[in-house]
Amino acid sequence: MEQSSDQKNKRQMKLSLFLTGDGNYHMAGWRLPGSTNDGGENIQRWVEAAQAIERAKLHMLFIADAASPPGTDDLQTLSLTARIDRMDPIPILSAVSMVTKHIGLAATMSTTYLEPYNLARTVASLDHISGGRAAWNIVTGSNKDDALHFNRDGHAPHAERYVRAEEFVDVVRGIWDSYDDDAFPRDKTSGVYMRPDKVHFLNHKGKYFKVRGPSAVPRSPQGHPVLIQAGSSEPGMNISARVADIVFTSQSSLKGAQAFYANVKSRCDRYGRSPEHMLVLPGALLFMGETESEAKEKFEQLNSLIPLRVAMQRLSANLGGVDLSKFDLDAPLPDIPVNNARVSAVESYIAISRREGLTLRQMAMRAAAAKHHWTLVGSVKRVADELESWFLNGAADGFNILPSDTPGGINILVEKLVPELQRRGLFRREYEGRTLRENLGLPRPADLSSRA
Ligand SMILES: Cc1cc2nc3c(=O)[nH]c(=O)nc-3n(C[C@H](O)[C@H](O)[C@H](O)COP(=O)(O)O)c2cc1C
Fold it and tell me: pLDDT, tens digit, for every residue of 394-406?
């Protein structure tokens, strides 16, 4: 590696665990002997996962989400996947917060289908409930079918979704600033519960939203819960640079990840922000074993359990609903026009297929195994080497770890990979603070009176 161990110790990785739906990221994860197949409705699974990663001192549990199951127009294919049942992340995280103390609690909520006032109240409530550990993953939504449940006929155009997202985020932050930190003396002697001079009405009137404020929830422990942004297109990077504390991204090569890292960080200047206060965490999908051959065996075993129709449906959905049936399965992935639902995802798939020379069939299997995330199949030591290389060479501030299956993928992460990273001085051995912001080394936004 290119830096000395002294330098390494100055900066340590931030690690998040990325779980979705039933918990298994690989489409066949739920079928592996020993893995869970009821995470979509069993809170105990989420509690066990959160407690395990808290023991390993990870920063955050992140639950990805869409409001509705994708692919219901093909129930036969959907019936072979675990993607149909998915509880709302906020109640899951509220329950998890009661049996954990340090782990950050992050949920995806869409700016396209919710109202900012409700979202601000919900996330601030989670921040109170958890003692300052809430985070919101801002997405404009990659499941185009969600539109059908919210009085619309289709997903709004990509550019329009981002215009709404920008305004949405401003309203949320404004609502979080409804009260100063000391607005609630709750003084029994004087009878003063709340100080009127510490209340701020937002009075927002914009293109999409008209929101007066104030909130029903006092300012929460983190001031502003942590903001994550997961879109990597041009407008996605801009909103990241303006507001995000954490940027999630899916990158599949060191060179691409370095370019993205430099690009998104360079934009912070425009908004008067320090790039150090925006942490870039690429996804890393791990197929790990104690040895190389054990990892490969697991990878192959998992892949052998994916029906082709499931893989094709996943790829089609990831490309924004493109009909792939007319193309030759064993020819290279054809040029797919960039799609409204997932601009950066389509670009990533095309880049992977061209770089690795994959056919449509192979690309579909890849989508079902790992989508377009960076995929690591190898021994714990080799995975640690790869993560270290990205971390030390300007590609990442840490990683969003995707376990192929649960609990197997979480156990090896906690019991083997984290100790290996700790031995190398790349990961902490104890939580530094109380709130998620403190544990991420991020400043707490001042309340409005202190900002003036
Ligand atoms: C790590 C990661 C997690 C994501 N999680 C979600 C999610 O939970 N729900 C969702 O609708 N989109 C999710 N996305 C998709 C994006 O946030 C975004 O909506 C989509 O990629 C389209 O925007 P873009 O073209 O700017 O990338 C995720 C993306 C990444 C990289």
Answer: 999 999 999 999 9
Q: Which protein residue has the closest C-alpha to ligand 1 atom 8?
A: 64
- Rounded Cα–Cα distance for residues 403 and 301 (Å): 15
Q: Which atom of ligand 1 is nearest to the CA of 250?
A: 31
362-365: long-range contacts (C-beta < 8 A, 24 or more apart)? 363/315, 363/333, 364/308, 364/311, 364/312, 364/314, 364/315, 364/324, 365/303, 365/306, 365/311
Cα–Cα dist 74/307, whole Å: 14
Write down the mean pLDDT value for the chain.
93
CATH 3.20.20.30 for domain 13-289+374-451 = yes
- Is beta strand 210-211 parallel, antiparallel or unpaired with respect to 204-205? antiparallel
Cα(367) to centroid of ligand 1, in Å? 15
User: Measured from the CB, is residue 229 less than 6 Å from ligand 1?
Assistant: no
Structure tokens at 390: 């990205």
CB of 231 shorter than 6 A to ligand 1:
yes
Measuring from atom 1 of ligand 1, which residue has the nearest CA? 248
Beta strands in 330-435 (DSSP E): 374-379, 398-403
Could you tell me if the CB of 248 is within 6 A of ligand 1?
yes
421/56 Cα distance (integer angstroms): 11
Instruction: Say how far residue 288 (Cα) sits from the centre of its chain.
Output: 21
pLDDT at residue 421 in the model: 98
Give dist(CA 203, CA 195) in Å, integer.
Answer: 19
- Asked if 396 and 421 count as a contact pair (C-beta separation under 8 A), the reply is no
| 100-to-46, 52, 54, 265, 435 alpha-carbon distances in Å | 11, 10, 7, 32, 12
Angle at 374 between CA 308 and CA 13, to 5 degrees: 145
Task: Judge contact between 175 and 121, C-beta under 8 A.
Answer: yes
To which residue do tokens 């919101």 refer? Answer: 136
Ligand 1 within 6 A of CB of 70: no
Calculate how far, in angstroms, residue 229's C-alpha sits from the geometric centre of ligand 1.
8
Q: Is the CB of 345 under 6 A from ligand 1?
A: yes
Residue 340 CB less than 6 A away from ligand 1: no
Query: Percentage of residues in the chain with pLDDT exceeding 70?
Result: 96
The Å distance, Cα 89 to ligand 1 centre, comes to 16
- Average confidence (pLDDT) over 132-149: 91
Q: Would the CB of 139 count as within 6 Å of ligand 1? A: yes
